Amino acid sequence: MRTVKVAIAGLGKVGSVFLDALLSSESDSIKVVAVAEPREELESVKKAKEMGAGYFRDARNMLEALGDEIDILFDLTGNAIVRTELHEILSGQGNRHTIIAPERIAYLIWALITEGNKRYPRP
Q1: What is the rounded CA–CA span in Å between residue 37 and residue 93?
Q2: Which residues pair with 74 in a beta bridge?
Q3: How far apart are CA 40 and CA 38, in angstroms?
Q4: Beta-bridge partners for 88
Q5: Which helix (H) or strand (E) holds 91?
Q6: Which helix (H) or strand (E) holds 35?
Q7: Cβ(33)–Cβ(97) below 8 Å
Q8: Domains and CATH numbers, the chain
């Protein structure tokens, strides 16, 4: 079975709940490899670290460091400039492997892994 290596940028209201859903998934095919969030004191950051995920204060640094070790990067920062810069980093690295998924894709994944039993948070 293939493992999908996931990273999450932004662990605010939406990102922290999304992280919880991914970490509580019983699937062995999902692994959260890293998170990026400037507020290191957040409980979601502590939880990610405890589960073995790498921690970065900035999503751009995370992508530069890990590159194609990330299969899917969920950009939940809500920042269009960051999203543009993430795409520029991929292009500069020649990384055609990593996919940057916006919040709408996160919502789809959320609905699937919670089987519609949990309400998706709104920013």
Answers
A1: 22
A2: 8, 101
A3: 6
A4: none
A5: helix 80-93
A6: strand 30-36
A7: no
A8: 4-113 (3.40.50.720)
